[in-house]
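FORM 12-B: Structure-to-Sequence Request
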């Protein structure tokens, strides 16, 4: 325990403060902004005011936290409602395993007629689009390589200019 002299109306009273109490708590509020010196006496009214302000700040922050929890609870209730409704409308996923729902690449085509004109037309168009995309990708790669080379040369010139 450390002792701090307190200024009353015309009197000085020693006040005990726990040594474990951080000095920032004593000097951290409005009194702290006045730069307390070891010779300056602390007023008990000021200490009470600091304690009241600290408590009020703590209560305000706790109320904010509780409001946040309450809003989250409402959100969870909404999510639970949506989850329950979805489970009612959608059949049990165990009835249809993923292998049945998602066709795997390389699986034989079952019940798909590939001899129709529409399928052949779409397949040809798909092939043409893939070819166009590959050409565009190749062109973009060449442009990127040229830009990279230009940037390299510019950086080299800048370095050479700085060294001369």
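FORM 12-B RESPONSE
SEQUENCE OUT:
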């Amino acid at each position: 325990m450390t002792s701090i002299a307190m200024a009353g109306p015309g009197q000085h009273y020693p006040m005990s403060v726990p040594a474990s109490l951080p000095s920032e708590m004593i000097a951290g509020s409005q009194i702290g902004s006045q730069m307390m010196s070891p010779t300056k006496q602390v007023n008990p009214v000021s200490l009470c005011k600091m304690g009241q302000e600290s408590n009020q700040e703590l209560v305000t922050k706790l109320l904010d936290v509780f409001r946040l929890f309450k809003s989250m609870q409402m959100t969870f209730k909404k999510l639970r409602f949506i989850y329950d409704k979805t489970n009612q409308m959608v059949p049990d996923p165990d009835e249809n395993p993923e292998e049945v729902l998602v066709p795997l690449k390389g699986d034989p085509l079952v019940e798909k007629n590939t001899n129709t004109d529409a399928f052949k037309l779409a397949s040809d168009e798909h092939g043409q689009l893939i070819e166009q995309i590959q050409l565009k990708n190749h062109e973009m790669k060449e442009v990127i390589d040229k830009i990279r080379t230009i940037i390299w040369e510019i950086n080299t010139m800048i370095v050479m200019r700085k060294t001369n």
